[in-house]
Every structure is written in structure tokens, then in C-alpha cells.
Amino acid sequence: MDVELINIHKRFGKVHANNGISLTVKSGTVQGILGENGAGKSTLMKILSGFIQADSGDILLDGKKVTIHSPADSVKLGIGMLHQDPQDFPPMKVVDNLIIGSPMGLFPDRKKIIREFEELQKQFNFSISPETYVDTLTVGERQQLEILRLLWLGAEVLILDEPTTGISASQKDLLFATIRKLAAQGKAILFVSHKLDEVEALCSQVVVFRQGINMGSMTPPYQTDKLVEMMFGKSIVRSENVCEKQEDKSFEIEELRIDDVRLAIRDVNFCIQKGEVIGLAGMEGSGQALILRALAGILRPTGGHIYMIEGADGGRIDLAGKHYFTYRDHGIHFLPAARLEEGLIQGLSLAEHFALAEEQTGFMVDRDQVENLSKKRITDFNIHGTPESRIEELSGGNQQRAELALMRDPLRLLLLEHPTRGLDIESAMYIWGKLKQRCEDGASIVFISSDLDEVIHYSDRILVFYGGKVSPAFEASSVTIDMLGQLIGGKGWS
Ligand SMILES: Nc1ncnc2c1ncn2[C@@H]1O[C@H](COP(=O)(O)OP(=O)(O)OP(=O)(O)O)[C@@H](O)[C@H]1O
Ligand SMILES: [Mg+2]
Q1: Does the beta carbon of 394 sit less than 6 angstroms from any atom of ligand 1?
Q2: Which atom of ligand 1 is nearest to the CA of 45?
Q3: Is pLDDT above 80 for 167?
Q4: Which domains are assigned to the chain?
Q5: Rg (CA), the chain
Q6: Whole-structure pTM value
Q7: How far is CA 164 from CA 50, 173, 239, 275, 421, in A?
Q8: Ligand 2 centre from 394 Cα, in Å?
């Protein structure tokens, strides 16, 4: 099905999120959509999929004008959208997630649905059990489920909004194979991303948005520097990685053990220097997220020690087994990847978030103080929003900045899960600049990222995880992407 968007306008208050955007996507092609944070990508996709309505403009399917008032309308017309944040029901079973969104009436034929689901799965080499509960699936699997659900509902146009954030490398390969297959079947695909290499690998044509305007399009062979210039209006050079590591231990992890339902991690030993950045690399579910949560005091280790070094004489406090508040009060801060589920609270404004995240100094919140603090943080972290903006009104990248802006001062250890997920290149560099400033002040950072470039570029040392095993710490300067890739995939372990 061919999709045509003509002169779409959408305003949110003062923000002109879509300013006269036109775009045509032909059946059987993959259309890439690039643009910096807040450029209006998700807004246009939500208009096409009926989650919001345009102020003006036309939508044509196969040349016929349509009106889309709701997601149900768009599904009926054959449009399916995979959102930036999963839209499923985690406490329910996979098959029930299918049934609940289907127009099957009161007595759906469960067996038939399962059969159809399995047939679809086979086409794409997915292997999700229909009777399993959604909250036990990985992010990548939840995404596969959502794709299958949309196809099962008859989607001919598929919108994918930043589908590769938070999934493992192998899940990404599978996703790309799936997208190619769907295009070959004649579906029209809209692929929103910040990642130039992905867009270049996958898309038959790319369009760039900036501040709500369509800046132009490109077809292969792609010129990366041109695309970057179209996105930001200038070319970008990544700054040198400056090492702030000091010869001063801040933490010592000894014989740490973690037992999770799916994974056992044994006898992990490493130290964290002051000012150091340690990157944790590995496929999703290899144990790095568990270590991060243990260091944050959210997950209780089953053995071993997390020593914090106090003072010059090397006195140590063992934090293992202590309450999360103890960790927090010692300047340990955790930033989760699931920003809308764990990191932020939907329905609350930015100002309310800042008020809650600060240390409580009484029973009352000082409105003026919070207002000032909010304004300062919003400027500091370059958040596109006001103190009154509710969290869900911000674009994905701005939510990420908001999460980073909630960090207290001073900090000793920062634990970050995908800190630049969903950020465009410029914002990611800006945020890392901020983080490195913390290191200058003596804070240490341990972070997870599925972007190996980011791990190598910003870490001083790197630990690789594979099936609960942890490598010795490598100096980042001596590591190549290829070598990391092999270790992550389970090769080269003794
Ligand atoms: N519901 C809303 N209420 C108010 N403003 C909104 C709303 N949704 C989006 N906006 C604003 O519209 C602009 C475009 O947002 P959009 O989500 O389309 O950006 P995006 O290109 O998807 O960015 P990102 O890469 O960060 O996800 C932003 O300035 C955003 O704050
Ligand atoms: Mg978006």
C-alpha cells in the first residue's frame, strides 16, 4: 500500500512539531526517517497511526484520501505502529495480548489464534511461546511480539519508531531480516532512527526532519556527512576521550555473587578508580544489568563484598546487603534504561520530578526554589520543555535528558543503563561532556551500552559479559570493536 502525507501541520502550544511535512512512501520500500531529538518524527508517525490528529493536511492511502481518528481506525486501514515504548500488557500472556487488541468479540477462538501466531512466527524465525507471560520476555522479544501482532491484524504499512534501542545485536540482525522480508512482501515500511549506519544499511530512501520541517531526502549511495549536515545544520566531530582516572581507589568489588532466576554470576572482582569510566559490554541478559543493579543496592547479592573506600588510609565500608537508601546516601546514583517505567513518573511535571529527586529538607516543598532549580537544570541539560511540561509530553530524547538531569550533587558513583539511548549524536556528545565533568570532580561511572562504539570511545576500562561470566578489565585504548564483538558473542573465553 502506498502512503502519502501531504502538508501536515501539528502544533503543541508554541511548538510547531510538524510544519508542513509532506512524504510519500511506496509499497515495497523501506523509508528511513532521520532527525535530531524533538525534530517531529514521532509526532508524524503518531498522526499516521491515529494516536494524535493533525491540525491540517491530508493522508492518502493508495491515492485515496482517508481520515484517521483513532488507532483503531488506522489498524482497520492496515497501518500498524511499533512505538518507541512497548505498548503491550506485561502481566498477561502472549496470546492474550493478541486477543485483547483484536476485533474478535467475546468468544475468541484461542486455538486458532495460537495456530496463526505460530505460522507467522515461523516466517520470521521468531520463537516466542504463546503461553508465556509478556513480563518474562526481553525488550527484543516484546518487540517481535508487537510486530507479529500488527501483522496478524493485517498491517500493510508498518511504522517502526527507533526499534533498535535496547535490543541485542543478534535480535537486531533478526529484526533487519524481518524488515527486508516484509518490504519484499510489498509492505511499506517507515523506519525512524538516529543511527545513520542502520538507516544506510536498511533503507531505500531517507528523509531528514529538522524542527518540524522536511529538510530533504537522499537515496543510495548515501553520503553520511551530508546527512549529518542536514540533521544538525553543521558537521560534527566527536571530541577526544579525556581520561580523568586517578590513582585512587573508590570502590573494591570482591567475590561478588548474584543468583537470578535465569543467571548465576560467580566471584566477580574488580576495582573502580576515582574519576574512571568503566563500560560493561555484552548481549542483553548476559549479567551486566544485574551487576549494575547490585552496585546500586537494588538487587541483593548472594555473596561477596561491595567495599567503598573511605579516606586516604584506605578504610573500607561494605555496602553489600545494605538498604538502597544507604547506597543513595553515599552518593551512588542509578539511571535505569526503562525511563517511563522505572526512571520517571508519567503525569508529573518536570518541576515535580526535580522536587522529588532532591534531598528532602522538611515537609513542605519550596515552590520558588523548585522553580529555580528546574529552570537551571532545563538549561543545563538542554531539555526542550518548561518546568510545567509533563514527562509524557517530552520527546523520547528529552525524556532521557530529564532522567540525567535528576542526578544529585555531589555524586561518587554513577550507574548508567544505556545513558544515551534515543539521543541524537549531538545530544549524546553533550551528555557525555556533562558526565565527564562529574569524573573531573572525582565521581566514577559504570555504564552499559549496546553501542560498542560508545563503549570503546567513552570508557577507560571495559568489562565484557557473556552468560554470567565476566572478563578481566581491558584498557579501552587496547580494545577493538572486532575483539569486543567476538567476546560478546562467546568467542575467545578460556
Ligand atoms: N503530547 C505533547 N504535548 C506537548 N508537546 C509535545 C507532545 N508531543 C510532542 N511534543 C513536542 O513536539 C516536538 C516534537 O516531538 P517528537 O516526539 O515528534 O520528536 P522526535 O523527533 O520523535 O524526537 P526524539 O528523537 O527525541 O524521539 C518536541 O518539541 C516535543 O516536546
Ligand atoms: Mg521520537
Answers
A1: yes
A2: 18
A3: no
A4: 3-232 (3.40.50.300), 249-331+408-488 (3.40.50.300)
A5: 23
A6: 0.74
A7: 23, 10, 25, 31, 10
A8: 9
